[in-house]
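Incident review: delayed structure delivery

Summary: a single-chain prediction request sat in the queue longer than the usual turnaround. Root cause was a stuck worker, restarted by the on-call engineer. No data loss occurred. The affected request and its eventual output are reproduced below so the record is complete for anyone auditing the incident later.

Affected input:
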Amino acid sequence: MNIFRLAGDMTHLASVLVLLLKIHTIKSCAGISLKTQELYAIVFATRYLDLFTDYISLYNTLMKLVFLGSSFSIVWYIRHHKIVRRSYDKDQDTFRHYFLIIPCLLLALLINERFTFKEVMWTFSLYLEAVAILPQLVLLQRTRNIDNLTGQYVLLLGAYRVLYILNWIYRYFTQPHYVHWITWISGLVQTLLYADFFYYYFQSWKNNVKLELPA
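Output delivered after worker restart:
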């Protein structure tokens, strides 16, 4: 564990808490893509298959449980909560996310470090996480309705990935033989997808105006 990994985990956790705060207290999921949340639920479900077989640490186990539980809770809220689901903009959240799932699965079957079920699923989760934010970004571009909590949620998700890249760089120079090309490339692709959002977020902050993404 290093400071970049810890900061990345805490930022990731903060993004989930911000989203849960919006949904639970305001009883609204306006501006939130159900498609992205479903993709994240798949990411965590396929990544943490070792949850009850390979114990690493209490911290590791708790974080896995938190991200699994929160991701499926958010999907449940948007789909089934009698008040929250009314604010879901189904007509705008039309990104066909299965077009992301199938190529990521095929890529994981072709390019992985070991051809075992758990390893392929782990690799699939990396590829899918890299593009899972796309339905959310497309929804924000379509609706141009970005409230403060939604903007902070996406910003924290992007910051988490940037901090993890710093963690990988730190480990590369401090740990011998630390080379994980699949993880690094997937993380870099994911970070690049946030670049446009980062630009407009900081422009809105600097000029003290409402955040809007170009259509």
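Verification: The helical segments are 3-26, 34-47, 58-80, 98-110, 117-131, 134-143, 148-174, 181-207.
Action items: add queue-age alerting; document worker restart procedure.
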